[in-house]
Design a protein that fits this description.
By secondary structure, the chain is an alpha/beta fold. The protein has one domain: Vaccinia Virus protein VP39 (Rossmann fold, 3-Layer(aba) Sandwich), CATH 3.40.50. It has 7 helices and 7 strands; from the N terminus they run αααβαβαββαβαββ. Strands 3-2-1-4-5-7-6 form a 7-stranded mixed β-sheet, sandwiched between helices. Helix 5 links the parallel strand 2 (about 85-90) and strand 3. The termini are far apart. About 35% of the residues are buried.
Length: about 200
C-alpha cells in the first residue's frame, strides 16, 4: 500500500508540475496528444455552444483552434446551406484531420487555414461570429489575439469563448472579461459558472 501511495503521490506531483509549466509557457495541444481534445466535454458541450453562439444559416463563422473537429463538424451544419465555417490552427495536422473527417461526412463548407491567432490572415470586418473553446489559454499574447479577432469581426459581430476545468490553460472569466474589454469587446452573455463557462462578447 505504501508503494502504491508513493506512486500516486509521484504522479500527482508530476501532473502538478506539468500543469504549472503549461500555464507558464502556453502552447497548443500537440497532434500526438489529440485524444485530449476528442474527449466528451459535458459542461462545454455542443448544445450549450450552439445556444450562446446562435448561428444562422448563411453566416461566415470563424473557429480558432478546432482540434480534430469536435465542434467544427457540427458548426458547419449550423450555418449551411450558404454559410461558411473557417477553421484556423497553428498545426497543419489538426486541420488535415478535421478536413478528412469533414470529407467523410460530405461537408463542403469548411475552409481551413494554418496561421497564428495573433496575426489573423483575414481582412477587417470578415466574420459574423468567431469562437474559441479551451483555446485562448494556449495563446501566449491573449490581448493581441483578442484585438485581432475584434478586427476581423463585422460591426456588431460576436465572439464566444468557452473555458473549463481541467484544462491547465484555463482562463478565468474575470481575466477574460478584462482582456476582452482591453480589446474593445463588450460583454453580452454567459452560460455556466466556475469552473466551466461560455461567454459571449460583441464588437460595438
Amino acid at each position: 500500500m505504501l508503494v502504491i501511495g508513493a506512486a500516486l503521490a509521484g504522479v500527482g506531483l508530476l501532473l502538478g508540475y506539468r500543469a504549472a509549466r503549461w500555464r507558464k509557457d502556453p502552447s497548443a495541444c500537440p497532434y500526438g496528444q489529440r485524444l485530449w481534445v476528442e474527449l466528451p466535454r459535458p459542461f462545454l458541450g455542443r448544445t450549450r455552444l450552439r445556444r450562446i453562439l446562435a448561428p444562422q444559416p448563411g453566416q461566415r463563422v470563424l473557429e480558432i483552434g478546432p482540434g480534430t473537429g469536435y465542434y467544427a463538424l457540427h458548426a458547419a451544419r449550423w450555418v449551411a446551406p450558404n454559410g461558411t465555417l473557417d477553421i484556423l490552427d497553428v498545426q497543419q495536422e489538426m486541420l488535415d484531420h478535421t478536413m478528412r473527417r469533414a470529407g467523410g461526412l460530405g461537408l463542403t463548407n469548411i475552409a481551413p487555414r494554418r496561421a497564428d491567432a495573433r496575426t489573423l490572415p483575414y481582412p477587417d470586418d470578415t466574420f459574423d461570429v468567431a469562437y474559441l473553446v479551451a483555446t485562448l489559454g494556449e495563446i501566449a499574447d491573449q490581448e493581441r489575439a483578442l484585438k485581432e479577432i475584434r478586427r476581423v469581426l463585422k460591426p456588431d459581430g460576436r465572439l464566444v469563448i468557452g473555458e473549463g476545468f481541467p484544462d491547465p490553460h484555463m482562463v478565468r472569466f474575470e481575466t477574460l472579461r478584462a482582456r476582452a474589454d482591453s480589446a474593445g469587446l463588450a460583454p453580452e452573455n454567459r452560460i455556466g459558472g466556475a469552473p466551466d463557462y461560455f461567454a459571449s462578447f460583441r464588437a460595438p
